[in-house]
UniProtKB/TrEMBL annotation:
GO terms for biological process: iron-sulfur cluster assembly. It comes from Longimonas halophila. This is Iron-sulfur cluster assembly accessory protein. It comes from the Bacteria. Residues 9-109 form the Core domain. PROSITE patterns: HESB. One of its GO terms (cellular component) is cytoplasm. InterPro entries: ATAP (IPR016092), ATAP_core_dom (IPR000361), Fe-S_cluster_asmbl/transfer (IPR050322), FeS_cluster_insertion_CS (IPR017870), HesB-like_dom_sf (IPR035903). Belongs to the HesB/IscA family. GO terms for molecular function: 2 iron, 2 sulfur cluster binding.
Length: 114
């Protein structure tokens, strides 16, 4: 199946670098890509999904800086325009989501309402 060129999400250089590092050091199997999505739950109503997985039937596939990204077609509405970033500082470490569609976010930044 063809990889789509226009992704509804973006990734900072720092996040892309960290994801490539994880793929190398954790030996993610061939055929797996980065799954980005949302699920019900969290203190604001929805939480983000970020992990490695195989492509599923309802997925769209994108190439972001050489990283295969899989996203369920239904999640695009919630994630359109979102930028994934990575912070590695004393006050915070991990991936963050800057989502312009979120009307509310929680203090931990891992859930939102739209």
């Amino acid at each position: 199946m063809a990889t789509q060129t226009q992704s509804p999400i973006a990734m900072s250089d720092t996040a892309a670098s960290e994801i490539r590092k994880i793929m190398r050091t954790k030996k993610i199997p061939d055929g797996y890509g980065l799954r980005v999505g949302v699920k019900g739950g969290g203190c604001s109503g929805m939480s983000y999904v970020l992990g490695f997985d195989k492509k599923r039937d309802k997925d769209q596939e994108f190439d972001i800086d050489g990283i295969p990204v899989f996203m369920d077609k239904r999640h695009g509405l919630y994630l359109m325009g979102t930028t994934i970033d990575y912070h590695d500082g004393l006050d915070a470490r991990g991936f963050t989501f800057d989502n312009p569609n979120a009307t509310e976010t929680c203090g931990c930044g891992s859930s939102f309402a739209s």
